[in-house]
Write a structure and sequence with these properties.
By secondary structure, the chain is mainly α. The chain is globular, with a radius of gyration of 17 Å. The protein is built from six helices and no strands. Helix 2 runs parallel beside helix 4. The longest helix has 29 residues.
Length: 163
């Protein structure tokens, strides 16, 4: 029973973490190819992270309320906090690495480590193998990032953006 109680908010944590990895990771990957300035990439990433974390928290709150969860506000807070925390880790390489493509590479490594660590912890505590979930989450995150990277390149080319 203790184990089940400790996983009461895992859904909220996964929602915030995974959405940040997919959504913000995709945004940053697209911006990396579309925009030359790391400062603009960081600024845009921060704005998107805060707006999306508030949106995700609000959506999770509403979803939990529909399920009559008495802890809906707490679940929403976990979702928002996990989104912001994950986003900060994804944006960080762009603040310390001068080359935006090396920063993108580091962001990818950080994303993979976050996914690995989280799935390891869940697998260990539930007793279920984590490799399948790890590879699935990794494929989704990197698939979205790759598509977004090409969308950023196409946007730069077709819209003539040069910042």
């Amino acid at each position: 029973m203790k184990r089940k109680k400790s996983f009461k908010f895992v859904r909220a944590l996964v929602l915030g973490m995974h959405d940040a990895l997919v959504e913000l990771g995709g945004i940053i990957a697209g911006l990396t190819f579309a925009i030359d300035s790391r400062r603009i990439i960081v600024m845009t990433g921060l704005i998107a992270a805060v707006a999306a974390s508030l949106s995700m928290a609000a959506a999770n709150y509403q979803a939990e309320r529909c399920e009559n969860n008495p802890h809906a506000l707490r679940a929403a807070m976990y979702t928002g906090i996990m989104y912001v925390g994950t986003s900060a880790m994804l944006i960080f390489p762009y603040t310390v690495i001068a080359n935006k493509f090396w920063a993108l590479t580091m962001m990818g490594l950080i994303a993979a480590l976050i996914i690995f660590g989280f799935n390891c912890a869940i697998g260990r505590d539930t007793g279920r193998p984590f490799i399948k979930r790890f590879t699935e989450m990794l494929a989704i995150c990197f698939g979205v990032a790759i598509v977004s990277f090409f969308i950023g390149g196409a946007a730069r080319h077709f819209l003539g953006v040069n910042i």
